[in-house]
Design goal:
- By secondary structure, this protein is of the alpha+beta class.
- The protein folds into three domains: 60 residues, OB fold (Dihydrolipoamide Acetyltransferase, E2P) (Beta Barrel); 67 residues, 5' to 3' exonuclease, C-terminal subdomain (DNA polymerase, domain 1, Orthogonal Bundle); 81 residues, no CATH class.
- Strands 1-2-3-5-4 form a five-stranded mixed beta barrel.
- Strand 4 and strand 5 form a beta hairpin.
- InterPro entries: DNA_helicase_Holl-junc_RuvA_I, NA-bd_OB-fold, RuvA, RuvA_2-like, RuvA_C, RuvA_C_sf.
- One of its GO terms (molecular function) is four-way junction DNA binding.
- Belongs to the RuvA family.
- One of its GO terms (cellular component) is Holliday junction helicase complex.
- One of its GO terms (biological process) is DNA recombination.
Length: 231
């Protein structure tokens, strides 16, 4: 399995690039969004990759982050979603957009991707709503994305055993984290408080939309309000 490629960008096509790695050229298919982030021809480039193996075909797909790569693998697990459709969804929505769409059940957003109809988009939401929390939690971590400038707080072991919501909120009060990191920490905190993955992910996604750029403590408070019993 080829999990990462680093070399010199030799050329760009519409949907793929050629990367020279010590004299060997690798064709890597990428989304429009990834293509837009790549350097100029002749410069160094590094991509996480996923290898598709079939009897008559070997294809590499490239991603700028591990989160994108894991979304690609999850999306391709849905019947009716092949590599081309997966790249179309990621190219249209990005990793954060896919996360929000699935967490909030927004199949219409998924259906805006080229070649993905409403029926398939609804299947994506249905099939992945209970499988995606692990990938959502990767956002903002060192493994999933570049760290935010200045760093951010992480969930420590004693926080994971803390079941009092005020203590959890106080732990993050004043923490300035990148929005991806704040969402990841909020999702983890809600899980520690006993909320199910789907409910927690939906609340975090909505709270992040309503509180753009908010720190972790603010997102936790907003998510808890959304999860509070109505009436």
């Amino acid at each position: 399995m080829i999990g990462r490629i680093a070399g010199r960008l030799e050329y760009r096509a519409i949907d793929h690039v050629l990367i020279d790695v010590k004299g060997v050229g690798y064709i890597v298919f990428v989304s429009d969004r990834v293509m837009a982030t790549l350097p100029r021809v002749g410069e160094g480039v590094s991509l996480y990759t996923d290898l598709l193996v079939r009897e008559d075909l070997l294809q590499l797909f490239g991603f700028t982050t591990l989160v994108e790569k894991e979304w690609h693998r999850l999306l391709m697990s849905v019947q009716g979603i092949g590599a081309k459709a997966s790249l179309a969804i990621l190219g249209t929505l990005g990793a954060d957009g896919v996360s929000r769409s699935i967490a909030m059940g927004d199949w219409a957003a998924v259906a805006t991707a080229k070649g993905v109809g409403p029926k398939t988009a609804k299947k994506v939401i249905l099939d992945l709503k209970d499988k995606a929390h692990g990938v959502m939690a990767m956002a903002g971590t060192a493994a999933g994305a570049a760290p935010a400038a200045g760093g951010g707080a992480s969930v420590s072991a004693d926080a994971e055993t803390d079941t009092d919501m005020h203590a959890v909120v106080d732990r993050y009060d004043g923490t300035a984290a990148g929005n991806g990191a704040a969402q990841s920490e909020t999702l983890s905190a809600l899980s520690n408080l006993g909320y199910g993955p789907s409910d927690a992910a939906g609340a975090v996604a909505q709270a992040a939309v309503e509180n753009d750029g908010a720190d972790t403590a603010t997102l936790i408070r907003a998510a808890l309000k959304l999860l509070a019993p109505k009436g």
